[in-house]
TrEMBL record:
The keyword Flavoprotein does not apply. It holds the Pfam family LemA. The keyword Membrane applies. It is a single-pass membrane protein. Belongs to the LemA family. It is found in: Membrane. This is LemA family protein. GO terms for cellular component: membrane. Keywords: Membrane, Transmembrane, Transmembrane helix. InterPro entries: LemA-like_dom_sf, MamQ_LemA.
């Protein structure tokens, strides 16, 4: 085999390798965009639960206030939630969306904190349902967030490797942004069904049905049995 043929073969191999690198970079960019579209879709579906949450808690707050000369702390916190929700809806890239979503979660947390110190506030079934829907949205977001960040990290590492970094610059590819939000990690604070606030049933603690009386008696008996065992 002469030198010219060897050179042709080498050039062909290099060209094929370059083509594979470029194709891989473009495929990873598509994967990142697809993962972000799924994550962003979950974000926006979760935000659809916010208006129902604000409306339900507003009704509970109005019932608790009855006669109020000025807006309560709960009312002001709900206004912050509505404003933060609009900011989240307008965020487009992962970095801005993560920051906006964190502000929304913090605003919702302030609502929970305000209702807990409001002496006459009782969470209605509508509020609890909206709270559970927010929690479900956060749970779904937590899973999709991990998937998106994994895809973004793989694409970033590929762009930084040689020789892909040479082609990434020529193709005008930028490193994917990660969605670094704490919203999903803080979802435990965003669900009244976890028992953080009294419900309508809790508002009447002296009313116990036969099943509740039986359960209470059984629990007391179990405690007495364990106490006797420890004494022996």
């Amino acid at each position: 085999m002469n030198l010219s043929l060897i050179a042709i073969v080498l050039v062909g191999l290099v060209a094929a390798l370059c083509g594979l690198v470029v194709a891989n970079l473009k495929a990873q960019q598509r994967d990142v965009q697809a993962a972000w579209n799924r994550l962003d879709g979950l974000r926006r579906r979760g935000m659809e639960a916010v208006p129902a949450f604000v409306a339900a808690v507003s009704q509970d707050e109005a019932a608790a206030q009855r006669v109020a000369s000025s807006p309560s702390v709960v009312h002001r916190a709900l206004d912050d939630v509505a404003a933060a929700s609009r900011a989240s809806a307008s965020a487009e890239d992962p970095h801005a969306a993560a920051a906006a979503d964190d502000r929304l979660v913090q605003a919702i947390e302030r609502v929970y904190a305000a209702t807990e110190v409001e002496p006459d506030f009782v969470a209605s079934p509508a509020s609890r349902k909206a709270s559970a829907q927010l929690d479900a949205a956060m749970e779904a977001l937590a899973h999709e967030q991990q998937i998106y960040n994994n895809v973004a990290t793989i694409a970033t590492n590929a762009q930084r490797s040689f020789p892909a970094l040479l082609f990434a610059k020529r193709l005008g590819l930028s490193e994917p942004q990660r969605y670094e939000s704490e919203a999903a990690a803080r979802r435990a604070a965003l669900d009244w069904t976890r028992g953080s606030l009294p419900s309508l049933a809790d508002a009447s603690p002296h009313v116990m049905n036969p099943q509740m009386l039986w359960a209470s008696a059984m629990a007391d008996a179990a405690i007495d049995d364990r106490t006797d065992e420890r004494r022996r």
